[in-house]
Amino acid sequence: MISILLADDHTIVRKGFRLLLEHEPDVNVLGEAANGREAVEMAVKLKPDVVLMDIMMPELNGFQATQRLRLMDDSIRVLILSMYSSQDHVHQVVQSGASGYLLKQCAPRDLLSAVKEIAGGKTYFAPAVSRQVLDFRRQYRADKGSILTTREFEVLQLVAEGKTNKDIGGNLFISVKTVEKHRQRLMDKLGIHDVAGLTRYAIARGIVDVY
Question: The domain spanning residue 175 has which CATH number?
C-alpha cells in the first residue's frame, strides 16, 4: 500500500487527485494540505511514502516545502506537479531534492506510474523535461556559478510578490543583510537590476502567478 499526501492550494485540484488515486487498490490518501507550511507539518506527522506537491502555494512554495521536508525526514519522497516546464522550474526541482516532476496536463496513467516509481525508490521526470534535467546536471557540474541557487530562487519569488527585504528575511529566517546579498547575486546572474525587471522575469517563467 502506497500512502500519499496531497499538497495544493486549490481545493478542486486536490479533490480531483484524491478521486483519481483512491480508485487504485494499492494507494491510500492520508490527507490534504492547502499550503507549503501545512504540507511540511502534515508530512512529518503522517509520514506518507509520497507527497504530491504543487509549486505555487502560499506560506511556502513547493520548492521551499520540499527542501524543508527533505531536511526533516529524507525518507519521504516528493513528486512536484506543475503547469510549467520552464528551465527555471526544472532546475529548482533538481536542487530542492524532489524525486520527480510531472506536468498537470499529464494523463492519469502517467501520474499513477510516477507515484509508483517514486514510492519504489526511483525518480520520475516527465518526458517533456527529462532532457532539461540531464542538461542541468551537466551544466551544474561544469559551472555552478551560472545558475540561481535555491535560496536565490526563493528571494526572487518573494521580491516578485512585492515583499520587502525585511519581509523576505522573516519568511526565510535569515537576516536583512543576507537577503540583500542573495538579491544582489541573483540580479548579477540575471543581468536585471530593478524590481520591475525581476517581477517581469518571474511572471514570464511562471515563478509567480498573475492574479
Answer: 1.10.10.10
